[in-house]
Amino acid sequence: MPTDQHEQADERSVVSMRTMEIIVAAAIFAFGAVVAWASWQLGARWGGDGPQAGYFPFYIGVIIAFASLVTLVQAVLGRSANPGEAFVERGQLKLVFAVLGPALVYVLVIQWFGIYLASAIYMAVFMAWLGNYAWWKAVLLGIAVSVSVFMMFEIWFKVPLHKGTFYDPLSLIGY
Amino acid sequence: MFIGVILGVIIGVLPGLGGANGIAILLPLTFTMPPTSAIIMLSCIYWGALFGGAITSILFNIPGEPWSVATTFDGYPMAQQGRAGEALTAAFTSSFIGAFVAVVMITFLAPLVAKFALKFGPPEFFSVYFLTFCSFIGMGKGSPWKTLAAMMLGFALAAVGMDTMTGQLRLNFGFHELMRGFDFLIAVIGLFGIGEILLSMEEGLSFSGGSARIDFKIVIATWKKLPRYWLTSLRSCLIGCWMGITPGGATPASFMSYGVAKRMSPNGAKFGTGQLEGVVAPETAAHAAGTSALLPMLSLGIPGSPTAAVLLGGLLIWGLQPGPLLFVEKKDFVWGLIASMYLGNLAGLIIVLTCVPLFAAILRIPFSIIAPLIIVICAIGAYTVHNAMLDIWFMLGFGVIGYVFKKLDYPMAPMVLALVLGDRAEDSFRQSMLISQGNLSVFFSNWLVGAIMSLGLVMLFWPLVAKLRGR
Prior knowledge:
By secondary structure, chain A is mainly alpha-helical.
């Protein structure tokens, strides 16, 4: 799927700006409430030697909850900017997931097989799949990127990067 | 140094990477260098990013940096009329002037501000932090409630992990991996880097643009025209310096300067159609602000811009505590930095003026190569901060948050600011609370702290006041 397809992309709205505002504000509210609650558990009052560990975060949590509540009410009343507009169109969402999906897989592969192999594969797949490049070009560039990253970090800067927890392909060449 | 400038310009040109996350990504690389040369390298990257942001906004109408958005208003029409060279020269020269004025100001004012700051105790420090945060709420253009929520989210994330005063673990919900807390670098890389990629992906961004050629004749011809706009330059410098010191930052400075120039200039009505003046004004102010943002960072430990916030983080990692004592204990470092600013600025000007066609060529690399490359670099950057795999997952999570927040107009800068300053603000707040035994009036106990706090409160309620006055 090439990137320049967006002209004929699906323009149906997936979720409206207003709905998304409400969802996000509610999520932030929940987060604030959790922070406040957890800090209260920890002790948000004045201890014998000064404020307790939860003192500051407790108020932070309260302010988060309050600020998001205002945003939430504004969104519900439809007073936020362009409430009817689409937050994301279906075609756009597809493109976003086309980046996000592989990125998730990429991080998973990093965890298992180390950063170098994962990066090479990721570059190659991204180029070939989304950019419609010839496979050999994509693979070549992927390997080139990985090798230059390897040279820069492991050899010049002596910064070890993540080696796979599952299997480390670099053990083949003694790294 | 030249490497730093070039890296910075590359970062400034790339739309996915800004000064803040560029420095964040490259920060771990400088750990192996001695602090002085590392910070010089980073400030050169900072310069480069400031210069580089203008290139894409003029050539392609894609601002590489938030503060070059105002440059696109007149810069892009100029490029369309085939006056790209002129616009670029004007942009670079005026940014050089803006930055130069700011550096001169730093040279003379930094020791003064530092001396002044030595009088600061915990309540004073908290009041300055308070002013910083309040001015972000007051001057932000979006909903102040969203700014507040984003900022407090930053605070909450900063609070995760070990409590610095009692050593208690908090908000980690039983996960030992969370003991470290969230590092602001991870958040910055995710929010800005990954978030930006997702956003540009959605727009199906395709780069296209003609090659830009600067030959030296245009440079000289433009330079001849520039002195006419000395008044605009001067005004923009003042706006920039003021906005940089009060942490308004380069982005509002550029917009404000553009707006003022449009109102004050005799041919203001033609702004937006490719006026040289419309390029001069925002660029001068953005750079004056970007540079003078370093002043409060060095002398008070308060970053005036998101990029300065990341630089501040860098200083802290090297064990350099920015603030008044830096000027007493690490004299050679401070003056080395200031000297490098003069040189870096000049070097930057020469480099960008000669290399523009080259920079434009970067944008011709298709998005499907640039995008995965940026994600790979982000992942590496996130990993190297703590050598922790979990951080890469967090980065991805922050990326999604950044994408959603940007679409809903939640500002990112206050969140990062709070994430960086959160612990320190909390410490100074609690220390002053300890001094006063829990009495809030400590923040109005003398004229200095009282004045700063009141200014902060004014900033905080500014949107409300402006609304009332508008009626």
